[in-house]
């Protein structure tokens, strides 16, 4: 069975860069060291973690490019470790001498914290789900999103991201830095012919971002260890007009890839 879905929007948040375009151009921006999450009302924004805010920025960029209805678009959120910093902090409180745990902090420690925050912020009543699959998180989130497009004919935004892991959660030298990325998908028949297409999500060798003008090797290496890097690699390829089989991890996953092509290919 052959299938394809269209890509109608992308987004990303990388600390120190102005969105996906700033990252692709390799132009640091001191005004973008932290996520702004302007799509979220101020009261909710104050309670949100750095990861949830970064997810909000990537999601908002993809939503804006796609022109999808914010109140009805489906969404899939992927993260390998989720709100680990908040969760570990709560566990420390539980086993320490702290006062009663905060219900508000618990609400922001769950794996679907960003999903719930954005659903409320945009008054969204569409399907939304959150998942984690270690280094295969981008591939599995993309698979879920593609399934919604093909099975239900829905538009969907897939967003993946991971924060830097808390101290002692991972071994020395294998940590990573914060990043998020998002991609907006719809049925191929609903998109202009100029939009790129995705097909053939498979376990097969694929290309990924290996270098980038203006980005140091140390920064690329640290970013490359992030479990969600595969989706950032894909949206960079889309923004640069690259085609071919694109890897959805940097070697730590099972080796999923997806074919990126144009409508006539």
Write the layout of secondary structure elements.
Elements: E1 5-13, H1 19-25, H2 42-47, H3 50-66, E2 74-78, H4 84-94, H5 103-107, H6 113-121, E3 128-131, H7 137-152, E4 156-162, E5 179-187, E6 197-203, H8 217-224, H9 229-240, E7 244-247, E8 256-261
Keywords:
265 residues; alpha+beta; 9 helices; globular
Quick description:
With 265 residues, the protein is of the alpha+beta class. The chain contains nine helices and eight strands. A hairpin with an 8-residue loop joins strand 7 and strand 8.
Structure description:
This protein is α+β, with helices and mostly antiparallel strands and 265 residues long. The chain has a single domain (5-261), classed as Thiolase/Chalcone synthase (Peroxisomal Thiolase, Chain A, domain 1), CATH 3.40.47.10. Helix content is 34%, strand content 19%. It has nine helices and eight strands. The chain has an eight-stranded mixed β-sheet with strand order 3-2-4-5-1-6-8-7, with helices on both faces. A hairpin with an 8-residue loop joins strand 7 (244-247) and strand 8. Helix 1 crosses helix 9 (229-240) and helix 3 crosses helix 6. The radius of gyration is 18 Å and the shape is globular. The two termini are 17 Å apart. 46% of the residues are buried.
